[in-house]
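Whiteboard transcription, Tuesday session. T.W. wrote the structure tokens on the left side:
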């Protein structure tokens, strides 16, 4: 009878597998907590909030799949990950795609607003450590296999479902939450609409910011375009404010505001969106 192949790297495998699990487990627990909090808030949510719920679910599934793969490698070595199903690999690829798109969004967000707060975008960078165990597991899977260990058949249509789904989700998110070309008539119509579930006034404000459409305009030109501003003592001197409705995302509590500042010559010098505390 043929002897079983010797595991020459048992100690390394145990250490690497345990380290991968320890890196992934906190992220998995945080994602689970985030999902629970989001579901508690969903009754107060817009369709945009429901989209955020789906994003958290995808992240949670991807983290769970990668953590499972890391544990199986820790327990069984190469044999534990070469037998992973195409669905598990697809979920792992989805996690990597989410991190990649998230980091890309951070870069794009510094040039053009995408409908998320800066802090929300920056949080995507925290997903990078999850790529370390993911990359390691994929690399080990594609190495020369020990004698007697057969890899699960590769089915590109099933393995690549994860990245394709994440890409589609990102495109829908951008279409629903991203900037919307400015429409003066719609802007005026929504002036008194606090609970517009599609957040159209806020998204038009994002478009104005991203395109720098009003940079250098005189105060009278701004008022002619946006209408008369609201009187408010919440903001700085010399700034005018326009209400945008409830906040962007699923914690729809306070109004967001479009603030426009002017320089000494009474021309637009700054334009931003704020949510007063």
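and on the right, the sequence the group agreed on:
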């Amino acid at each position: 009878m043929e002897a079983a192949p010797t595991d020459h790297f048992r100690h390394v495998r145990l250490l690497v597998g345990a380290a991968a699990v320890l890196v992934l487990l906190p992220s998995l627990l945080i994602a689970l907590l985030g999902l629970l909090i989001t579901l508690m808030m969903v009754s107060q949510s817009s369709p945009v909030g429901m989209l955020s719920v789906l994003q958290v679910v995808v992240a949670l599934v991807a983290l769970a799949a990668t953590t499972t793969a890391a544990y199986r490698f820790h327990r069984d070595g190469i044999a534990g990950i070469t037998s992973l199903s195409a669905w598990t690999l697809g979920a792992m690829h989805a996690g990597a795609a989410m991190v990649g798109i998230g980091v890309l969004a951070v870069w794009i967000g510094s040039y053009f607003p995408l409908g998320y707060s800066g802090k929300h975008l920056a949080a995507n960078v925290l997903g990078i450590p999850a790529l370390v165990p993911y990359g390691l597991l994929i690399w080990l899977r594609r190495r020369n296999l020990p004698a007697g260990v057969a890899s699960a058949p590769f089915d590109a249509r099933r393995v690549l479902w994860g990245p394709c789904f994440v890409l589609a989700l990102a495109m829908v998110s951008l279409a629903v939450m991203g900037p919307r070309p400015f429409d003066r008539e719609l802007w005026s119509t929504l002036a008194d609409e606090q609970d517009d579930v599609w957040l159209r006034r806020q998204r038009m404000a994002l478009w104005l910011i991203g395109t720098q459409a009003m940079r250098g305009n005189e105060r009278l030109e701004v008022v002619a375009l946006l209408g008369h501003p609201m009187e408010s003592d919440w903001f700085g001197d010399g700034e005018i404010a326009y209400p945008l409705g409830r906040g962007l995302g699923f914690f729809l509590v306070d109004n967001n505001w479009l603030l426009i500042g002017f320089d000494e010559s009474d021309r637009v010098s700054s334009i931003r969106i704020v949510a007063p505390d």
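Someone added at the bottom: Residues 39 and 53 are 7 Å apart (CA to CA).
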